[in-house]
Amino acid sequence: MEPADFEARAAELLGAGAHGYFAGGAGDELTLRDNVEAWRRIALAPRVLVDVSERDTSVTVLGRRRPHPFVVAPMAYQRSAHEDAEIGTARAAAATGSTFVLSSQTSTDPRAVAAAGGAADRWMQLYVFRDRGLTDDLVQAAREGSFEALVITVDFPFGGWRDRDRRSGYVVDHAPYVQLSGTPLTPAERHAMHDPTLTWDDIAGFGEASGLPIVLKGVLGPADAERAVQVGAAGIVVSNHGGRQLDTVLSGAAALPAVVDAVAGRIDVLVDGGVRRGWDAAKALALGADAVMVGRPVLWGLACEGSDGARRVLEQLVTEFDSTLGLLGCPRAEDLDASYVVAPA
Ligand SMILES: Cc1cc2nc3c(=O)[nH]c(=O)nc-3n(C[C@H](O)[C@H](O)[C@H](O)COP(=O)(O)O)c2cc1C
Ligand SMILES: CCCCC(=O)C(=O)O
């Protein structure tokens, strides 16, 4: 099976509830679809007669050189996709030099993920729960497990209006690491764990408590990007949460240029949502992103072939990205700029 076939095959392999949870978005799923389409609408503008015999796909994010710009997005409940779960995905990331982000809603103890991942790059995604004991434990696990950064997700005061989950009532079919009651959680219970009182005033405290750089995930506008700089974040992820929170919000691709302008190089900018091909990542970097997160494609690989499938998805993205640099006449990823893309009129 080719990685391109994983999405359709995962739909057959997974139960309807789990598949709807993984694949679905908020409302009419307009933003979910637009996330993919927005990258496709941006045209690449190549240069010719450039020596592209050697290419350099590496980028610098949070002060560290990384072999390519792909970061595995935090995704909850990976055991519902495959028994390899988060350890499988973390190993796939390590094998491909991708930074791995562990969801707060992990199915696997973060300390076990850290032990399995060895020296590979990993970040901890933090949800601030009403239960601060759970939240503090995740921060502690991040410190103990050599996680390099805390990715605080800021677009989830509570869960979005997700028709697929409302219809299926999907109850996660394993015990996630954080849970309130020891019993499986319905969508409404899961969504209500989050602390909707979280504000900008709370962010710096997490940096102090953890001693880790903070990345704010879920920023879509320049004013919030400026505030992220002011509260001391080391980076932001321009993201609409894979179209899962508020339907009809703008795509990461559309939001990126204004955010990059506002940030003006002071902190790192990542983007996610709908990145499906290596050339999508090249477009993101051309528009000023330092790296991209990839979500569902990795899950489909995991669902079909466990850790190997997730690794094959990442390998293909990296290969496509490398080939894009060559065919675009821009052999160094860090030289990508707006002259290599034409945005839709
Ligand atoms: C099944 C699923 C679970 C997710 N869980 C989390 C999560 O726990 N924390 C988080 O910050 N984002 C979560 N996200 C959002 C992703 O990190 C990411 O923003 C999004 O999936 C990127 O879009 P893509 O799937 O189109 O690549 C989840 C996304 C999916 C599809
Ligand atoms: C309450 C589950 C949080 C996981 C998540 O972020 C998502 O499903 O989008």
Please supply descriptive tags for the structure shown above:
single chain; 345 residues; alpha/beta; TIM Barrel; eight-stranded parallel β-barrel; two-stranded antiparallel ribbon; 13 helices; 41% helix; globular; binds flavin mononucleotide; binds 2-Ketohexanoic acid
In CATH terms, what is the fold-level topology? TIM Barrel
How many beta-strand runs? 12
List ligands, each type once.
Answer: flavin mononucleotide, 2-Ketohexanoic acid
**Can you give the mean pLDDT?**
96
Rg on CA atoms, Å: 19 Å
- Taken in chain order, the helices and strands follow as HHHEEEEHEHEHEHHHEHEHEHEHE
Q: How is this structure best described in words?
A:
FMN binds at residues 74-76, 103, 125, 153, 217, 239, 272-276, 295-296. Glyoxylate binds at residues 21, 127, 162, 241, 244. Keywords: Flavoprotein, FMN, Oxidoreductase. Belongs to the FMN-dependent alpha-hydroxy acid dehydrogenase family. Its cofactor is FMN. The protein is 41% helix and 13% strand. Helix 1 runs antiparallel to helix 13, helix 4 packs parallel to helix 13 (296-328) and helix 12 (278-286) packs across helix 13 (296-328). It starts with 5 loop residues before the first helix and ends with a strand. The chain has one domain (3-42, 57-330): Alpha-Beta Barrel (TIM Barrel). The chain is an alpha/beta fold and 345 residues long. The strands form 3 sheets. The protein has an 8-stranded parallel beta barrel with strand order 4-5-6-7-8-9-10-11, surrounded by 8 helices. Residues 22, 35, 73-76, 103-105, 125, 153, 217, 239, 241-242, 244, 272-275, 293-296 line the site of flavin mononucleotide. 2-Ketohexanoic acid (7N5) binds next to helix 8.
